[in-house]
Write a structure and sequence with these properties.
This protein has 395 residues and is an alpha/beta fold. 39% of the residues lie in helices and 19% in strands. It has 16 helices and 13 strands. An eight-stranded mixed β-sheet has the order 5-4-3-2-1-6-8-7, with helices on both faces. The chain has a five-stranded mixed β-sheet with strand order 11-10-9-12-13, sandwiched between helices. α10 crosses α11. The protein is globular, with a radius of gyration of 21 Å. Adenosine-5'-diphosphate binds next to α10 and α12.
Length: 395
């Protein structure tokens, strides 16, 4: 039986990314609401005005027209950032689910409303086709309370839902599953630390296929150093700055867009530029790289303690998959945990980069969130009899 046609939709506030499986044709519409641009992997690059997500999706479906598989589109999978505590796995979308995603916009005001635009556009244009929501938070929804509670008054958790949710879950789930395959061992028997290092960066402690702790928190701002986000910070700093007269919007801008690699280096949010600057002798760029690697190292140590052991560390994301130096720098001090790299294999970005005989393996696993969403969508829509996915196992 041929694989069913599944459309994966990732709607941002002014962009729409669509990928059609199994072929993998991708279309991006950016700057929706202004002078938009439509770029497709099959050689289209158009400038035009696109008013809203509805129109963007209609255009995308037109452009994909000739390329649809024989059975047409059998399901649509939507990336949704926040599923709160409601969803620990993908879910078929109906009006009630749509209402909950809308209600959760309070927790993810930058993301869920945009994701909803995509859902509404697709439900409107493809009313007969099952639609599935796949949540970034789902993989972490089963974390124990010792990991998800902040040390705040309990009523803020109970009444305001302030807790650690975690993000990048689809990626952490996908690379965990791939790691088990690469290690030739069942996922249920493994203790993994997965490191998703891109513009956003997060770590997860994955024990027996479940996320038991993760570095992003109530928002995707916590934890590791990122391209433009600070990661871990003493909340007292925020009070100090606010009392000093900084507005909430200014503080938001600093923490989300002017911090991280960019803020420390003063050069760029892009790892390659920061490395280049450090090599050219800029001390602040060197400091940014040090902080980046140090945060990774201490998180791996903390998660080994959280899980009571460690079988493998898994690198993914643009930096994790490509930057041998950061991998070497972040693992350098972890020999005491049994982590040692094979320098040559690390330089080649091999899948297995741990040294021969080291107690803990180190893997490089390219992430594929869209593939994971497509698989989860096909399964949730009842189209594919596939082996259980990591998102399933996280229940
Ligand atoms: P996003 O989180 O936006 O999806 P990516 O996962 O693509 O981002 O990661 C972007 C980061 O990956 C940037 O900091 C970029 O410098 C880094 N990166 C991409 N390719 C390389 C490379 N060959 N060497 C080092 N860093 C790289």
């Amino acid at each position: 039986m041929p694989e069913p046609g599944v459309l994966v939709v990732n709607a941002g506030s002014s962009s729409l990314k669509v990928k059609l499986f199994p072929a993998g044709d991708a279309v991006l519409v950016e700057r929706i609401g202004g002078d938009s641009r439509l770029v497709a992997s099959f050689g289209i690059d158009e400038e035009r005005r696109v008013a809203h997500h509805d129109e963007a999706l209609r255009l995308v479906l037109e452009r994909l027209g000739q390329r649809l598989p024989a059975g047409g589109i059998r399901a649509v999978g939507h990336r949704v950032v926040h599923g709160g505590v409601h969803y620990s796995r993908p879910v078929a979308i109906d009006d009630a689910v749509e209402a909950i995603i809308e209600e959760l916009s309070a927790l993810a005001p930058l993301h869920n409303p945009a994701n909803l635009e995509g859902i509404r556009a697709a439900r409107g244009l493809l009313p007969e086709v099952p639609q599935v929501a796949v949540f970034d938070t789902a993989f972490h929804a089963g974390m124990p309370r010792r990991a998800f509670l902040f040390g705040l008054p309990m009523r803020l958790y109970r009444e305001e839902r302030v807790r650690r949710y975690g993000f990048h879950g689809t990626s952490h789930a996908y690379v965990s599953r791939r790691a088990a395959t690469l290690l030739g061992r069942p996922l249920e028997a493994l203790k993994l630390v997965t490191l998703h290092l891109g513009n956003g960066a997060s770590a997860a402690a994955v024990a027996g296929g479940r996320s038991v702790d993760t570095s992003m928190g109530f928002t995707p701002m916590d934890g590791l150093l990122m391209g433009t986000r600070s990661g871990d910070i003493d909340p007292g700093v925020l009070l100090h700055l606010l009392r000093g007269g900084l507005s909430v919007d200014d503080l938001d801008r600093i923490l989300n867009r002017e911090s991280g690699l960019l803020g420390l280096s003063g050069v760029s949010n892009d790892m390659r530029d920061v490395r280049h600057a450090a090599e050219a002798g800029q001390p602040d760029a060197a400091a940014a790289l040090e902080v980046f690697a140090y945060r990774i190292a201490k998180t791996v140590g903390a998660y080994a303690a959280a899980m009571g052991g460690l079988d493998a560390v898994v690198f993914t994301g643009g930096i994790g998959e490509n930057d041998a130096r950061i991998r070497a720098e972040s693992m350098a001090g972890l020999g005491f945990l049994g982590l040692r790299l094979d320098d040559e294999r690390n330089r080649r970005n091999d899948a297995h980069i741990g040294a021969e005989g080291a107690a803990v393996e180190v893997l490089v696993v390219p992430t594929d969130e869209e593939r994971m969403i497509a698989d989860a969508t096909a399964e949730t829509a009842g189209l594919a009899a596939r082996p259980p996915r990591a998102t399933e196992e996280a229940r």
